[in-house]
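Before relying on records like the one below, remember that each one covers exactly one chain. Contacts with other chains, cofactors or solvent are not represented anywhere in the record.
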Amino acid sequence: MSTAKPRTPAGTLELLPLDQIAFQDMLDTIRRNYERFGFLPVETPAFELSEMLLTKSGGETERQVYFVQSTGSLKRGEAPELALRFDLTVPLARYVAEHEHALSFPFRRYQMQRVYRGESAQRGRFREFYQCDIDVVGKDELSIRYDAEVVAVIASVFRELAVGRFTIQLNNRKLMRGFFERVGIADVEQQTLVLREVDKLDKRGADYVRRTLTGEGFGLPDERVDEILAFIAMRSSGHAHALDLLAGIGGGNAQLESGLAELGEVLRLVKAFGVPESAYALNFSIARGLDYYTGTVYETILDDHPQIGSVCSGGRYDNLASHYTRSRLPGVGISIGATRLYWQLREAGLIGTAQSSVQVLVTQMDAGLMPVYLDLATQLRQAGINTEVVLDSGKLGKQLKYASKSGIRFAVILGEAEVARSVVQIKDLAKEEQFEVPRAELVKALRVEIEQAQALGELRRGPRGAQP
């Protein structure tokens, strides 16, 4: 009988336990910051009804969708009625429309789940990956103040992730469309096409954008392209400079003036939220490729690792659920592609293998003392100390080697001699030191050792950074 070679599907990220802990720590940090700003958790099914998920026929999105079909329906030749979600925004739109009358508005939700896309298999591109989203959805209207709050959330997340300096780049699509109108590009569809090309400036350079806009398909005059390139090349350095840039643009039409006013208000509120000036800047080439963005847009880059690209993006949209309800539901939100972010940070050497979540191993010296070992482990767990017990017999050296390889810092050793004297041996495997404590003081002694190791960064903390 032949055996299949074990291998993971292309486009998936499967981690060893200590790497999984590092990834989980990143997710916990993101979740903690979302909750800190008052966002509530939501989960939706991995698959949606196809008619809900694919509200538009054709396009790149539909070509990347994984459809879900039972073997029974396959045999009957039926079209699949279910599809795996390709992002968290479409499920959110369906969720808000379906539960509209049970929700309180503005509705503030965060969602951290896997999504699925039929990407071409290549290094760093994933077909299954985590997205970590927040959105604020209003009923009929939503204040521009929420656009500024989102910047504060992004800053809080990446400050705590401790991955170095970062910049949240801001722009406004009303401002962009108004500027295009001022230079003579009045057609809305052409504005959308130009926006998509402008968004490629930082990735492909000004020469590429110039060739595209003056070439076949656009055919814009050189002088008009010069104006566009000069405009989208503008970047701010500091809060006052950002406001000066806006003041120098001038008006000319209602959309441009609305975009200028909104972006100016966002800047003033971002400062009031306490976001450091070094953490945000204007970038007039940021447009975001998705057409549903209508106002403020965001992209976040790591200053020392720009090759990673945007690590957090999003923006304002006028009507989240227009395909599902007649209610007007404007909103603003951002998304962090956590799987890609983790992979990129690990590749850049900014994140490494984590420490084990197990803090203590209770070894086995005598199988007859198993009730004693289990009682010690129960005491430690009740004290908030993560504890594993050796349940199989074996040499002590082998048990200690297992602890070291697994990243467990402390071992508790207890044999008949220790039981007779009511003492316990504690071995610090990192320092290769061993000491004896009264059995009644085991919890207290380990607390002291663990807290000292945590203070020095030699041992990971408990859930949400709590001390044991």
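The first strand starts at residue 40 and ends at 41.
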